[in-house]
């Protein structure tokens, strides 16, 4: 067994929280630059330029890209030959998030109770998803995701006989109805299959890969959604969506859940391997 | 066209603003979001006559900065409270996203790009908490801005930029 200390994990999570919030990843920056080259709306161009300018200022001055520093989602792939020493994994992650949000001057947006709306000012608990994988390494991915785009997301339980066309209509409709409020240009995460609880997680996990539409269906959806002309910040233009990501999973013979997780242009994902 | 707007605002200045106009705001504006709105409609804590309300809550102020990052939040979440505040004198609301002209009747709705919060913080020259300090980052604040860029999304005649 390889030992990894809880302290080391906390330190890594802390660093990732700060980096994710202040340094726009290269894949997102490149996608935004490409969107700018293709944008014909003048207002759309100005907004895309402001977004790129914002990323420069944020990096230079270590300021958060967005005031909504989000819930802290932490995805951990734990090698089965790893033993965590000096404390629990959950506590190590929470310690890292708490420190990162404090030291990085990040906004704490997690309420302790959904109804009383108290905000203890720690951004805890982290939203943790773990997976046990072969090997002796530990991969940590931090995604910080704002509430505005999250609120535009949707899930629908389709019939097993529903067609791909019907699923497509649901995805496009979700963007059409709410996309303008989710800070476009968006990234659309789609989870198809699994169960009522798994489909949204698939959709969220689809957002973790480097952004870009890869499969034929993803490319077709990208093109169809961009024909909606919602544009940057919903003010019209070509750049409604930067990429569509689809992740599928086996499911029950009676069901076909489909979840659409809307992500804003301030797409904040950082990973490290220990 | 770029228009300079001085806050607080008169009725006359509002009429000049047309949907699609790009404006630069100068002056004092209020910062409030969900919880502050819920409190404000019960008991108005400050004079709202001619006021501009920006839907936002900044990140904590880092050393050597006037304020943290401060971009707009989704305007529709404030819809239930907006007509009551317009009656009390609010003339302009600033946020992001689609909104119904009905909700903002008697005022002008401006949008600023979401997610450019570090950039927008550069237009702010001072900030102070006016009420509800217990709400932390969601407290009611007053900020003073220079060249704060925004776009007229719904004008006083109810014309909207959103289809």
Q: How many domains would you count in the coordinates of chain A? A: 2
Structural class of chain B: alpha/beta
Task: Give the overall form of chain B.
Answer: globular
Radius of gyration of chain A: 19 Å
Low-confidence stretches of chain B: none
How many domains of chain B? The number is 1
- How would a textbook summarize the main sheet of chain A? 4 strands, mixed
Work out the strand percent of chain A: 25-35%
Walk me through this protein's architecture.
By secondary structure, chain A is an alpha/beta fold. Chain A has 2 domains: 2-24 and 65-145, no CATH class; 148-267, no CATH class. Helix content of chain A is 38%, strand content 26%. Chain A has a 4-stranded mixed beta sheet. In chain A, strands 6-9-7-8 form a 4-stranded mixed beta sheet. Chain A is globular and about 55 Å long. The relative contact order of chain A is 0.20. The model of chain A has no long low-confidence stretch (mean pLDDT 97). With 163 residues, chain B is of the alpha/beta class. Chain B has a single domain, classed as Alpha-Beta Barrel (fumarase), CATH 3.20.130.10. Chain B is built from 4 helices and 7 strands. Chain B has helices spanning 11-16, 34-40, 82-87, 117-121; strands spanning 2-7, 22-31, 52-54, 92-95, 108-111, 124-131, 140-154. Chain B has a 5-stranded mixed barrel. The longest helix of chain B is centred in the N-terminal third of the chain and has 7 residues, at 34-40.
Comma- or semicolon-separated keywords:
heterodimer, A: 274 residues, alpha/beta, 2 domains, four-stranded mixed β-sheet, 8 helices, 38% helix, B: 163 residues, fumarase, five-stranded mixed beta barrel, 7 strands, 31% strand, globular
Secondary structure topology:
The complex is a heterodimer of chains A (274) and B (163).
Chain A: E1 2-5, H1 6-22, H2 26-38, H3 42-61, E2 71-79, E3 82-85, H4 89-103, E4 127-133, E5 138-145, H5 147-150, E6 154-158, H6 164-178, E7 186-194, H7 198-206, H8 216-226, E8 241-251, E9 256-263, E10 268-273
Parallel strand pairs in A: 1-3, 2-4, 7-8
Antiparallel strand pairs in A: 2-5, 5-10, 6-9, 7-9
Chain B: E1 2-7, H1 11-16, E2 22-31, H2 34-40, E3 52-54, H3 82-87, E4 92-95, E5 108-111, H4 117-121, E6 124-131, E7 140-154
Parallel strand pairs in B: 1-2, 2-3, 3-4, 4-5
Antiparallel strand pairs in B: 2-7, 5-7, 6-7
């Amino acid at each position: 067994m390889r030992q990894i200390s809880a302290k080391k994990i906390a330190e890594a999570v802390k660093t990732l929280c700060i980096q994710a919030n202040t340094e726009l990843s290269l894949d997102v920056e490149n996608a935004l630059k490409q969107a700018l080259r293709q944008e014909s709306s003048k207002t759309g161009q100005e907004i895309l330029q402001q977004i790129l300018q914002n990323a420069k200022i944020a990096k230079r001055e270590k300021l958060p890209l967005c005031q909504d520093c989000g819930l802290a989602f932490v995805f951990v792939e734990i090698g089965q030959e790893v033993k965590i020493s000096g404390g629990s994994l959950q506590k190590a992650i929470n310690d890292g998030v708490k420190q990162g949000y404090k030291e990085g001057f990040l906004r704490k947006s997690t309420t302790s109770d959904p109804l009383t709306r108290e905000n203890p000012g720690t951004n805890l608990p982290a939203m943790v998803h773990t997976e046990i994988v072969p090997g002796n390494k530990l991969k940590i991915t931090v995604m910080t995701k704002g509430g505005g785009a999250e609120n535009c997301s949707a899930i629908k339980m389709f019939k097993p006989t529903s067609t791909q066309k019907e699923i497509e209509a649901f995805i496009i409709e979700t963007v059409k109805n709410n996309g303008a409020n989710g800070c476009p240009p968006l990234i659309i995460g789609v989870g198809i299959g699994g169960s009522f609880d798994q489909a949204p997680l698939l959709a969220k996990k689809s957002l973790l890969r480097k952004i870009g539409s890869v499969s034929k269906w993803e490319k077709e959806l990208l093109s169809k959604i961009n024909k909606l002309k919602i544009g940057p910040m919903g003010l019209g233009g070509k750049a409604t969506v930067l990429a569509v990501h689809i992740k599928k999973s086996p499911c029950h013979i009676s069901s076909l859940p489909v979840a659409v997780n809307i992500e804003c242009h301030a797409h904040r994902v950082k990973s490290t391997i220990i | 066209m770029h228009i300079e707007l001085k806050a607080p605002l008169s009725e006359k200045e509002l009429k000049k603003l047309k949907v699609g106009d790009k404006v630069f705001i100068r002056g004092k504006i209020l910062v409030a979001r969900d919880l502050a709105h819920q409190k404000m409609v019960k008991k108005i804590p400050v004079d709202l006559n001619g006021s501009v309300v920006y839907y936002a809550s900044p990140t904590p102020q880092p050393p050597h900065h006037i304020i943290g990052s401060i971009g707009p939040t989704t305007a529709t979440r404030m819809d239930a409270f907006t007509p009551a505040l317009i009656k009390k004198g609010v003339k302009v609301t600033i946020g992001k996203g689609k909104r119904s002209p009905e909700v903002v009747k008697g005022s002008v709705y401006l949008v600023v790009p979401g997610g450019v919060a570090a950039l927008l913080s550069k237009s702010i020259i001072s900030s102070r908490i006016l009420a509800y300090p217990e709400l932390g980052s969601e407290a009611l604040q007053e900020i003073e801005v220079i060249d704060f860029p925004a776009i007229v999304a719904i004008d006083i005649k109810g014309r909207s930029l959103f289809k």
